[in-house]
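Weekly modeling sync, notes
Attendees: S.R. (lead), two postdocs, one rotation student

Agenda item 3: backlog of single-chain predictions. S.R. asked that every request posted to the team notebook include the full sequence so nobody has to chase files. The rotation student volunteered to paste the first one in as an example of the format we agreed on. Action items at the bottom.

Example entry:
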Amino acid sequence: MRLDFRILHVKDKLMAVKKTYVVLSSKGGVGKSTLSSLLAFYAAERGARAGLVDLDFTNPSTHIVLGVDPREVRYVEEKGIFPALVGKLRYVTPAAFTRDSPLPLRGENVSRALFELISILRLDGLDYLFIDTPPGMSDEHMDIVYRLGEVVKPVVVTTPSPLSVSSVRKMISLLRESGLREIFLVENMGGGGLADVFKEPGITYLGYVPFYPGFDNCIGSLENVRNCPLRSYFENIVDRLMSEG
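Predicted structure, as returned to the notebook:
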């Protein structure tokens, strides 16, 4: 088998980070990007050296959650790209390079772009890195988990709906088939009922975030994010992640 030095380079970069979490969802509409953004932001607010990388090239949305204008994001280049500073959070979004226009990437080009973006980032000095991925179970973006399983931990986001639960079980099965034995789960827009549903070896239930009709007031600006009434729920999940070995 031909050695992929690009993958080795990315692994070396991520090994310098204390913990790297790849946030996944088996389907869209479960709040994955919102969760990625807020977990990373609150980790930084609590004093951790945290970073967030958005790897959704077609429809990046973390900048919308944080209220960041991608046209105003500036990166410092010095032997790589330093993530921009948003509040206390180190942040990278492809929207800053594309000016929020979608990239027409398909197939292997998606996987190649994911690894190439990470490979040029300066991640040294970070304790925690959250990587937001496109929704779904296509090989192109799941590749980041399959090929970097030694240095990343998957955080799967689901809602309590039967459709979402059924879909996420398939994703967990794929992750296990790829050799991953440690999988984290977050229940979004729920009440904690999935703690028993996914009570099985290898799955760590991190907690839940309840449904909140006024949630739009929790995103769109750093002030909104800081004053979100559900902040404690996200912080509880952050605490669980930080306490994991």
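Discussion: group reviewed the output briefly. The two ends are 33 Å apart (CA to CA).
Action items: rotation student to repeat for the remaining queue; S.R. to check formatting next week.
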